[in-house]
Amino acid sequence: MFFVYAVLGWCAEVAFAAVNSGKFVNRGFLNGPWCPIYGFGVVIVVLVLTPVEENTALLFAGAVVLTSALEWITGCVLEKAFHARWWDYSGLPFNIGGYVCLKFSLMWGLACVLVMRVLHPTVMFLISLVPDTALAVLNAVSACAMAADLTVTLLGIRKMQSRLRLLTKLTADLRELSDGIGEKISADVISAVGAIEEARGSYEEKRAEIKRKREEIISLLAERRRTDARLLKAFPGLRSERHQEALERLREKYLKKK
Questions:
Q1: Is the confidence at residue 247, as pLDDT, over 70?
Q2: Mean pLDDT, to the nearest integer, of 40-63?
Q3: pLDDT-based confidence at 255, cuts 50/70/90?
Q4: Does 177 have pLDDT greater than 80?
Q5: Which residues on neighbouring strands pair with residue 101, listed in sequence order?
Q6: pLDDT in the model for residue 4
Q7: Cα(181)–Cα(169) distance, rounded to whole angstroms?
Q8: Cα separation of 55 and 48, whole Å?
Q9: pLDDT of 252 strictly over 80
Q10: Which of 4-13, 15-24, 156-165 has the lowest average pLDDT?
Q11: For residue 161, what are the contacts with CB-CB under 8 A and spacing of at least 6?
């Protein structure tokens, strides 16, 4: 019964995924065509609720409670064991920790009512047709196959977690390297901006000084002192070893005025 419903549950998951995504998705925790949680769920519902299967309300309510509890426990165990959440209903209303939600709990309850009333009698009839020896062999083969699948899956998850740890480390190293480069660039740019501002300030100071000197020169050139004018007129060939350029400007100024 467990293996039959595990396979049928996988088929239901594949059909549900096909309707939603329009393509085949191998759903379930394991690689093979089975979802053990469905096998456990139906077995628990059958064992616990068979005495009340004629009472639809009790059957539905009991199925909702049992399947929700199973889904919640499974989600918690998987997250604790593998540090990963395999499904998350946090975005749906009336959820409990993201592990279960009202929408799917009601769906599981309705599905269990249909299974108990319609599907399960047929399944049990078909199982009863299989000879005990063949049934034992099928159970043994299925158990070995699922155990092997579980082993491979666990090893794959372990490798995936190792890759995730490595990827996380590489990402952190890359971020640290990037931050270091960014900080260096920022520091250089800030230093360069500071140097530019300093140079600009120095330039403004020099410019102001040049302007001031120019105004002084203009002022000096504009002054018409009698002594200077007399000396220049008296000594037209006057030359200065240190200030010849200024002397020429004065001479030019006074000659123009003349």
A1: no
A2: 95
A3: low
A4: no
A5: 95
A6: 96
A7: 18
A8: 13
A9: no
A10: 156-165
A11: 82, 83
Is residue 221 within 8 A of residue 249, CB to CB? The reply is: yes
Which tokens is 35 given?
A: 């979802």
Helices (H), the chain: 2-21, 36-49, 56-82, 102-114, 120-129, 132-222, 226-234, 244-257
Report the C-alpha gap between 45 and 223 in whole angstroms. 116
Using the predicted structure, report yes or no on whether residue 19 has a pLDDT greater than 70: yes
> 96 pairs with which residues across the strands?
100
Give the integer Cα–Cα distance in Å for 109 and 105: 6
What is the C-alpha to C-alpha distance for residues 107 and 110, in angstroms, rounded to an integer?
A: 5
Token reading at 46: 């059958």
Q: Which residue has the tokens 């549900």?
A: 16
Q: Determine the Cα–Cα distance for residues 190 and 196; give it in Å rounded to an integer.
A: 10
Residues 62-116 have pLDDT tens digits of 999 999 999 999 999 988 887 777 788 999 999 999 999 999 999 999 999 999 9
The gap from C-alpha 79 to its chain's centroid, in whole angstroms, comes to 19
Looking at the whole model, is its pTM more than 0.85?
no
Of 122, 113, 123, the closest CA to residue 2 belongs to: 123
| Closest by Cα among 31, 147, 165, 157 to 82 | 157
Cα 183 from chain centroid (whole Å): 23
Tokens of 133: 């020896």
CA 66 to CA 41: how far, in whole Å? 8
3-state secondary structure of 96: strand
Residue 131 exposure: Cα atoms within 13 Å on the Cβ side: 3
Give the β-pairing of 95-96 and 100-101. antiparallel
For the chain, the residue count is: 258
